[in-house]
Amino acid sequence: MTITSFIPPQRTLMGPGPSDVSARVLSALARPTIGHLDPLFVGMMDEVKSLLQYAFQTKNEFTIALSAPGSAGMEACFVNLITPEDTVVVCKNGVFGARMIENVNRIGAKLVVVEGKWGRAVDPQALEQTLSKHPEAKFVAFVHAETSTGALSDAKLLCEIAQRFQCLTIVDAVTSLGGVELRVDEWGIDAIYSGSQKCLSCVPGISPISFSDKAVEVIKNRTRPVPSWFLDQSLVMAYWSGEGKRAYHHTAPVNSLYALHESLLMLKNEGLENSWQRHQLQHQALAKGLVELGLEFVVPTDERLPQLNTVYIPKGIDDAKVRSYLLNHYNLEIGAGLGEFAGKAWRIGLMGFGAKNENVALCLAALKDALAKA
Amino acid sequence: MTITSFIPPQRTLMGPGPSDVSARVLSALARPTIGHLDPLFVGMMDEVKSLLQYAFQTKNEFTIALSAPGSAGMEACFVNLITPEDTVVVCKNGVFGARMIENVNRIGAKLVVVEGKWGRAVDPQALEQTLSKHPEAKFVAFVHAETSTGALSDAKLLCEIAQRFQCLTIVDAVTSLGGVELRVDEWGIDAIYSGSQKCLSCVPGISPISFSDKAVEVIKNRTRPVPSWFLDQSLVMAYWSGEGKRAYHHTAPVNSLYALHESLLMLKNEGLENSWQRHQLQHQALAKGLVELGLEFVVPTDERLPQLNTVYIPKGIDDAKVRSYLLNHYNLEIGAGLGEFAGKAWRIGLMGFGAKNENVALCLAALKDALAKA
User: Fold this and answer.
1) Which of B26, B294, B308, B364 is most buried, judging by how many CB atoms fall within 10 Å of its CB?
2) Per-residue confidence at B243, pLDDT binned at 50, 70, 90?
């Protein structure tokens, strides 16, 4: 095959992520590469840490950007904290809860599952009942914003319950960070991970993570080595510690971190609460329009993620045909269904930079056209 | 702290990596983000695969770009192939051989180490003797180009020996790929990993890997799950397979892959042999100048990596002061020593786009000035 430079089209990304990356962030991404141990780069990493602490609303000393996607961030939380002796309660209400289960199983820890409904929030009562039957449980893990269904769980309440049972919490904030209220310290979250490519509107490939002091203690007191060298956070801590000489662990993804720095700075300058409110307002406008088009939401109103709108594909409509039409005719990407919702639902993202009037208007107009033609 | 956009200086990167990234690759990096399941992106990934097959000189079907740095590439090779029952022979002649040992230990497999000298190639006779004493050995692992010392090992011969003893080979090509002769199929390498930020002169964060059909068989015949979900290549294969519908595993680092595509295309257009020759020629010019400055090479002539020149720091010279002067006065980065060579040697990279006349000239002139002032 003859290969030439790849020139991608200018899409509007309204799927479950990656979301639209602004020209400002792309321009930061393309700044000249410098060394990962360059004093100026090390200074920038301190700023990334401080900006991440703001985004997570935490004072956690251990708050870093992992050099790999959100699924590696999930794994970093699980493999560093959990050993085979531990009992872990996982609340499952979609694909990413199922992936947490996969992580627990590979560690060989004892697993207790709180089975939830697809398209619904995690049921706090079900968690409470499960914990009262399992006093040996040491961890509670759940997904704040289920990217596979568009459901938002009450992270504050779930953490309260977990704490009442002396459990540490592991929270998936891949799609929630920056898009809906999230307060790591106030809610007492012990380990949290996110992704760069959702409501931060940065390029994909980086996973912000944060561990509470209690979680760091658990890691420090491990006697069994973490199965993964790459994800062993006791080694990574030495690189991000900021005290004295940085210990080399691996080469940081320098340019992606420029982009993350810029996107976090944009979030800080807008203000976290303003960003949450913007996502909510844009969601309301989109939701109104989608209902007017005759589309039905999968998730009940008060459990909906503003940044990810999941609607049933109307009967008789060809899923792939509509999505292809939107892509080819309008350069507009919306997301297919995943897992139980494959072929049954669309996932329409309003994330970060993409949560704006023009995207809502384009999406509604294009979908109206596509549905009329389908 | 008040945080503003981070504007890095324009450095010349002549350390052990990241190497200088060309404006052409940076510009590819900053192209508009599209979805990781977009048909156009999937087509680009097929091209990345084909370009990687060229760079590795392999027809291996399983040739991909892992969404994480080289150290994750190393771990992917080890955790997918090796189970606790296996005996693994690791040839250690620097930091990265030691990291291989760390990987084997975390898997809990049986480890046999061929201890080598720092700054020297792996001794083929020592490998042969070790293998004749360990008929149970199933894998031989070694580093082709030791980034911590600048030593080049005879990968072809080491693979020949391993094959004579019916062992599969795992080869670290992080610093070698694109810079020195490397022929995966002809030499019979079974698992190989590299990094984007060395002789490919792409941004850091991606690890090209390739598995032979024999290695893929080993993975397919595993009964024990891979300890890491993120690095489980049986899951990743489904995403990169190119046959029919791609299975979602994680969100690919879209923009970094644009950059990798461009840097691999530049390598293809130059021609692999031409690139190897360019590295050799630039190395000769640099080496001549370094010797003229009175600097002494760590590695004997016929075991030297052209792309990484390791020289002893002259007696009485302040390591950190010289490197700071180069950085602050000339925007020139050279590498500190690592491991046994910390404080004792400098590592001067001539990698990929950086292996050119202007970098050699700048480095020699700047070093001359710095040494005179030190």
Assistant:
1) B308
2) low
- Terminal Cα-to-Cα distance of chain A (whole angstroms): 35
**Partner residue opposite B262 with nearest CB, options A5, A253, A265:** A5
Find chain B residues with C-beta within 8 A of A6's C-beta: 28, 31, 44, 47, 258, 261-262
**Strand locations in chain B, DSSP E?**
12-14, 62-66, 87-92, 110-115, 137-143, 145-146, 151-152, 168-172, 191-193, 207-211, 308-312, 332-336, 345-349
CB contact under 8 A, B251 and A69: yes
Task: Indicate whether B204 and B282 sit together in one domain.
Answer: no
Regarding whether A260 and A300 lie in a shared domain, the answer is no
**Shared domain check, A180 and A166:** yes
Q: Which domain holds residue A257?
A: 23-268
Last residue of a domain, one of B245, B268, B291: B268
The CATH number given to whatever domain includes residue A279 is 3.90.1150.10
Q: What is the pLDDT of residue B248?
A: 79
- Which segments of chain A have a pLDDT < 70? 241-246
- DSSP 8-state secondary structure symbol assigned to residue A304: B
Task: Give the gap in angstroms from C-alpha A284 to the nearest C-alpha of chain B.
Answer: 25
Residues B262 and B276 in one domain: no
Q: Does A2 fall in a domain?
A: no
pLDDT of residue A259: 98
Q: Do A8 and B34 count as a contact with CB atoms less than 8 A apart?
A: yes
For testing contact with chain B, the best of A4, A6, A78 (most B CBs within 10 A) = A6
Total number of residues shown for chain B: 374
User: What pLDDT score was predicted for residue A242?
Assistant: 54
* A259 and A305 housed in the same domain: no
Within an 8 Å CB–CB cutoff, is residue B2 touching chain A?
A: no
- Position B7 in a domain: no
The 8-class DSSP code of residue A32 comes to: P
Of A234, A268, A302, the one marking the end of a domain is A268
Residue B13 is nearest to which of A33, A203, A256, comparing CB atoms?
A33
Report the DSSP pairing between strands A137-143 and A145-146. unpaired
Residue pairs between chains A and B whose CB atoms are closer than 8 Å = 250
| In a shared domain, residues B253 and B321 | no
Q: How many domains is chain B partitioned into structurally?
A: 2
**What confidence category does residue B89 fall into, taking pLDDT thresholds of 50, 70 and 90?**
very high
Tell whether the model's pLDDT for residue B159 goes beyond 70: yes
Distance in angstroms (rounded) separating the CA atoms of residues A115 and A126: 8
Assess whether B103 and B156 both reside in one domain.
Answer: yes
Which two tokens mark B178?
């694109």
Q: Which phi and psi angles does B150 have, rounded to 5°?
A: 85, 20
The beta-carbon neighbor of B18 closest among A10, A35, A268 is A35
Of A69, A79, A251, the CB nearest to B17: A251
Which chain B residues touch A72 with a CB distance below 8 Å?
68, 72, 230, 250
ipTM of this complex: 0.97
Task: Specify whether B31 is located in the same domain as B58.
Answer: yes
Within-domain flag for B113: yes
Residue A3 forms part of a structural domain = no
A333's enclosing H/E stretch is: strand A332-336
